[in-house]
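#structure-requests
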Amino acid sequence: MKIIDAHCHIGEGLTYSQTADELLAQMDRHQVSSAVIVPADKFIAVYNSEGNDEVLAAAKQHPRRFIPFATVNPWYGNSEELERAFDLGAAGLKLHPAIQGFQITDAIVFPVVELAVERGKPIYFHTGTAVSSSPYQLTELAMRYPEGRFIMGHAAYADYWNDVIASTSAVPNIFIETSQHLASFVCTLIEQVGSDRIIYGSDSPKTDMGIEIEKITRFVNDADVLESVFSGNLMWILGGVE
């Protein structure tokens, strides 16, 4: 079974750090073939270009293992930085409303979302704790941009998980990423939303990659479902990345 991790961090954050080599070692330990990498928190909030350069450099050094997602803080109005990162190989956009200081439905986010949609790049939103990151807000944005592909990070863990099923059922272009959530809820999502809308992620190093994998494999036995959740859906979102 091929495993692609949909959400990992590299760099020095406020409460965590992880180098590219440390992440590779963890991936090898758990037989993860490749991983989406995003910058650490302070680079998401403030030092966007430095964080983007770090993930882009790691992906250039390990092109078959790392899939870089860029970030920009919409308050900076820096679509140029996002254009630069896309031109250098960024495969998607990561936004974190809680630490970047906006709500998902704020007009300030529209320019960077529109740029990502125009470039055919998926957009990963942190959702969950902090009122700025609710599932229904992401649903509203997905309705505004029906041609976009949106990833609901952490399945709205922990505060808004009750809204996930209804909010994602309202639109076809939101995919739910599993990191940090309970195994029981991931199983419920597979049953009620469908395995074609769920993607595995670990949020490494903030959570343990092995545990994040096992909370799915221990309770899901269908080989086709596992293939979809662990690699197939993300590959489709990314446009067929190998």
